[in-house]
Write a structure and sequence with these properties.
β17 (323-330), α11 (335-349) and β18 (355-361) form a beta-alpha-beta unit. The longest helix is centred in the middle third of the chain and has 20 residues, at 181-200. The chain has helices at residues 5-15, 31-36, 76-86, 143-149, 167-176, 181-200, 237-240, 250-257, 276-288, 305-316, 335-349, 364-372, 384-396; strands spanning 22-25, 43-47, 58-59, 70-73, 90-92, 101-102, 106-110, 114-125, 130-136, 154-158, 203-214, 219-221, 225-228, 261-264, 269-273, 295-298, 323-330, 355-361, 379-380. The mean pLDDT is 91. It folds into three domains: 21-110, ATP-grasp fold, A domain (Dna Ligase, domain 1), CATH 3.30.1490; 114-239, 2-Layer Sandwich (D-amino Acid Aminotransferase, Chain A, domain 1); 250-396, Rossmann fold (3-Layer(aba) Sandwich), CATH 3.40.50. The protein is an alpha+beta fold. The two termini are 38 Å apart.
């Protein structure tokens, strides 16, 4: 689960991290009052969407000369003008795709006198099986660009979970970021704070880009991005309360109600599979034969008829879907249960696109019998290769 920048900063502030004063608003009429709560005279008006690259993004509707999604304002009047122009319009960034995201919230923040911009993130480093800091002196840039052009400027420091961030770890991070004087003293305090926030709140990612050194020598978290491990949210009601469903795909929200692992994609072949590995293989073979998957959907190993029915409904609700491939290997999951769910869903919502079903495993013959006797226009497949060929051919016409 992702949250907005202003929410992430509130989480960090609760742990003692240095963040600027700021006020979130949802209406331009709130902008003046919000700005008056801040010291000024420099303000920053920030679009709040679940995507990076906001500063370099464009409000396409406002023309080619429109400013981006993060704007400096040198007066309260300018704050109000920017708020009116940004709210309700669609911001397109590298991470939103061409469709962009409508800006429904702004964060008006006190400005900062910046001396240096640094990069910091915390994530789970699977290569060592530990939480790790990734830092660079090249803050404010896309970390992918830094990694490609100057990989030597990225330093990774893995943290022993039994010790946490030690003095030696913090010193190593300070050295990597070339922190001196007051900034170094701040860093020695900040890095354990960020690690505690990451681990205590079960985050999957904490990214601070940029972490700034101000002209007075102090460190400040200027931007913050957080995502959380969905499997641990039951432990964090405070974090669950921060969920903004308007930033999520409606089909993904519906899928979460039934504990389905669903991710919307850009293709036109809907997939319903059991097991994440098999789902990835199914998407790969669809691409191999020249088409694109419309989704990743794993119904899980213990799905029942109701779960399968709802999964099918979610797939067919996507107007981009021109065909559906059901690929089930029945181990714990039984093929007859899948077949019953598919038949029930088709009878309830109808079938207007080609449907290819490949079943293998437990009760496979019973599953095939249920499909064959359903009277529905379902194409059976012998194996995954056969299934992919048939659905791609059907969609391509």
């Amino acid at each position: 689960m992702n949250i907005h920048e202003y929410q992430a900063k509130e989480v960090l502030k609760s742990f003692g991290a240095p963040v600027a004063m700021g006020v979130a608003i949802t209406s331009a009429s709130e902008a003046e009052a919000a700005a008056k709560q801040l010291p000024g005279p420099l303000y920053v008006v920030k679009s709040q969407i679940h995507a990076g690259g906001r500063g370099k993004g464009k409000f396409v509707e406002l023309g080619p000369d429109a400013k981006g999604g993060v704007r400096l304002s040198r007066s309260i009047e300018e704050v109000v003008a920017n708020a009116k122009e940004m709210l309700g319009h669609t911001l397109v960034t590298k991470q939103t795709g061409d469709a962009g995201k409508v800006v429904n919230r702004l964060y008006i923040e006190d400005g900062a006198d910046i001396d240096r911009e640094l990069y910091l993130s915390i994530l789970v480093d699977r290569s060592v099986g530990q939480v790790a800091f990734v830092v660079s002196t090249e803050g404010g840039m896309d970390i992918e660009t830094v990694a490609h052009d100057t990989p030597e400027k990225i330093v990774t420091v893995a943290i022993d979970p039994t010790a946490g961030v030690t003095d030696a770890d913090a010193a190593k991070l300070c050295d990597a970021l070339e922190l001196e004087g007051q900034a170094r003293a701040d860093g020695l305090l900040l890095f354990p704070i960020l690690y505690d926030a990451f681990t205590q709140k079960d985050m999957a990612l904490l990214e601070v880009n940029p972490l700034i050194v101000m002209k007075d020598g102090r460190l400040r978290v200027l931007d913050a991005k957080m995502s959380f491990d969905g499997n641990a949210l039951y432990r964090h009601d405070d974090i669950k309360a921060l969920r903004d469903e308007s930033e999520e795909d409606a089909k993904e929200i519906e899928a979460s109600k039934y504990d389905l692992a669903y991710v919307a994609l850009d293709g036109d072949i809907g997939c319903m599979v059991n097991g994440a590995g098999l789902a990835m293989a199914t998407m790969d073979i669809i691409k191999l034969y020249g088409a694109e998957p419309a989704n990743f959907l794993d119904v899980g190993g213990g799905a029942n008829k109701e779960k399968v029915t709802n999964a099918f409904k979610i797939i067919t609700a996507d107007p981009n879907v021109k065909g559906i491939l059901v690929n089930i290997f029945g181990g714990i999951m039984k093929c007859d249960v899948i077949a019953e769910g598919v038949v029930a869903a088709v009878k309830e919502v109808g079938l207007t696109v080609p449907l290819v079903v490949r079943l293998e495993g437990t009760n496979v013959e019973l599953g095939k019998k249920i499909l064959n006797e359903s009277g529905l226009a379902i194409t059976a497949a012998d194996d995954l290769d056969d299934a992919a060929k048939k659905i791609v051919a059907a969609v391509k016409g």
